[in-house]
Amino acid sequence: MILELPITADILYLLLITSFVASMLTASVGIGGGTLVLAVLVVTVPITAVVPLHSVVQLGSNTGRTVMMRPHVSSTLFWRLLVGAVLGTLLAAPFSAFWLSEVQLTLLLAVFTLLVTWLPLPAVKTQSLKNHTVFGTAISFIGVFVSATGPLVAAYMRHQTSGKQELVATMAATVSTMNLFRVLLFSGLGFFWTEWLIPLCLMIAAGFGGTLIGLQLLGRLPEQLFQALLKLLLTALALLMIVRVM
User: Fold this and answer.
1) Which residues contact 159 (CB under 8 A, 6 or more apart)?
2) Domain count for the chain
3) 64, part of any domain
4) How far apart are the C-alpha atoms of 96 and 60, rounded to whole Å?
5) pTM of the entire structure?
């Protein structure tokens, strides 16, 4: 019996390679692998499935990274952001991305990709319960619509953590939890997961493999070079998103 997939084999291969490379980059140099996965999903799968699928893939990828790096997770920062994550998801529920048209959602994701790619992200150096809660709420609210909030979380955490390992570990724990809340939200809203189970499982497995290799390369790869190449690739994908709906 041949299982029917919602996407063609070549698209599936592309998504697996993307998931592997994105996880490897995030684990090794801490840059926007999640944004890369999002951008490729937008140009390869039905637009209404993009944010739910991305949330599951990032949940799997970041959970694996969290387990492997759990001794380095800043529990204080994680639990404070968790409070905001719950609030932000609940607040965003009535304005879910399912309410947007295909053109609106595609343009939103394209603009978001360009913003997080090129806009300098402000540094927040003050550590307080209020700041953590407000940030967690805001970023989780935004995540319901665009999912790939990793670059924003990383920018916030750079001055809230000590060292690359604590940054990568705490970011993985936080992002995976935020994605779990989104998956629960989309399930409650009636997203049909069944036909996507095989692609999702394969992408999560590919992401886990990328994480294993990326952690071995942590701090060894030329971060500036990868950032420059990733910016060019994300810009091209964002422009392709816009062209598709114009």
Assistant:
1) 123, 124, 125
2) 1
3) yes
4) 22
5) 0.87
Tell me whether residue 213 is in a domain.
yes
Among 159, 60, 53, smallest CA distance to 109 is for 53
CA angle, residues 217, 19, 104, in degrees to nearest 5 = 130
Rounded Cα distance between 153 and 97, Å, is: 20
1 belongs to a structural domain: no
Between 11-20, 36-45, 102-111, 170-179, the lowest mean confidence (pLDDT) is in 102-111
Tokens coding 1? 């019996």
Tell me how many degrees the CA angle 82-154-45 measures, rounded to the nearest 5. 85
Length of the chain: 246
Give yes or no for residue 165 having a pLDDT over 50. Answer: yes
Task: Give the chain's mean pLDDT.
Answer: 86
4: in domain:
no
Task: Name residue 130's amino acid.
Answer: K
The 10 Å Cβ neighbour count of residue 75 is 10
89 φ/ψ angles, rounded to the nearest 5 degrees: -65, -45
Enclosing domain of residue 163 = 9-245
Measuring CA to CA, how many Å separate 233 from each of 6, 16, 72, 149, 219? 26, 17, 31, 18, 22
